[in-house]
Amino acid sequence: MSDTIAFIGVGNMGNPMATNIYKAGYKIKVFDISREMLNKAKENGLETVDNINDLITEKTSTVITMLPEGKHSKKIYLGEDGIINKVSKNCLLIDCSTIDIDTSKEIGKAAENKEILMIDAPVSGGVMGAQKASLNIMVGGSAEAFEKAHPILKIMGKNIYHAGKVGSGNGAKICNNMSLGITMIAASESLMLAKRLNIDIKKVHEIMKNASGNSWPIAVYPPLPGLIEGTPSNNKYKPGFSAGMMNKDLKLANECAKNVNASIPLGEMALNIYSKFCEEGNDTKDFSAISKVIGGDAWDYPIN
Ligand code: NAD
């Protein structure tokens, strides 16, 4: 294949996502502002470049971005040196970052003005989902852009959904992650209550997994160690998905709820709990470390 995929942002998620594209036989080049992340990408066999000018050429058929926040996506696509002015009309733009709906729409509009196809395509499933190529991908964009992106998205994910026009992917993702933030706190409350009641946490976890209290944090990503292998709680809460990222997503949920007069009392409470946790210097811990706040003096697990 002579056409090249350009991938920007090879952090916790971007690295395994780009690696899966590489393993599928595509020609792919990656860029990140972090030298450490570029070195990690090289270890996976990925071709790295040191700046965006070396990344985007006339052979670039697709650009995929996996960046932390809206301000990063905006700078990469629309900034002074933005890629919207570098790519050819035939190049497809896929922003997999979880960002605010307005920024997605702004990038989509700028792309449309240049007759370039663009989708927002945030993902769910965590680092493990990215590694196993089992992500859920929520797409906002035209039917034409969705069809064109589908084969590439299918390499990185298992379930690919067309949520609606540009911005709808992030809208769906924000709704999803608000529930995730709330249920992670709920799972922490249940397991830490079991601990204080002197009931074997492993038993309670097994019961909840099969009973009506099940949730993604219980079934896949428990907030306490010793329950499921390979989870951040088993690795001193190294992310995974950081508390800072969850805080960002809960802020996005609260902002857009305000814009449309939606009542989200638990979403508001979850934002308060995560904001405080991050202000206390825990933003780089995995978001499941919120169990420390819930557990208080009964929480005694290794944490970096
Ligand atoms: P991360 O911080 O590990 O990775 C982001 C990468 O982007 C970093 O390596 C950073 O150096 C790079 N970057 C920032 N600005 C850049 C720029 N201008 N040019 C090039 N590279 C730049 O974050 P992550 O956990 O991989 O998350 C990425 C996105 O995916 C976020 O929006 C997050 O909310 C979302 N997400 C994360 C998870 C998860 O479990 N980690 C799950 C689903 C969705």
Characterization of the model:
With about 300 residues, the chain is α/β, with parallel strands linked by helices. The chain folds into 2 domains: about 5-165, NAD(P)-binding Rossmann-like Domain (Rossmann fold), CATH 3.40.50; about 170-300, N-(1-d-carboxylethyl)-l-norvaline Dehydrogenase, domain 2 (Orthogonal Bundle). Helix content is about 50%, strand content about 15%. The protein has 13 helices and 9 strands. A 6-stranded parallel beta sheet has the order 3-2-1-4-5-6, sandwiched between helices. Helix 4 (about 70-80) packs parallel to helix 5 (about 100-115), helix 8 crosses helix 11 (about 245-260) and helix 8 (about 170-195) packs across helix 12 (about 265-280). The termini are far apart. The mean pLDDT is about 95. The structure holds nicotinamide-adenine-dinucleotide (NAD). Nicotinamide-adenine-dinucleotide binds near residues 14, 68, 76, 124 and 127.
How would you concisely characterize the structure shown here?
The protein is an alpha/beta fold. It is built from 13 helices and nine strands.
Give descriptors for this structure:
single chain, 304 residues, alpha/beta, N-(1-d-carboxylethyl)-l-norvaline Dehydrogenase, domain 2, six-stranded parallel sheet, binds nicotinamide-adenine-dinucleotide
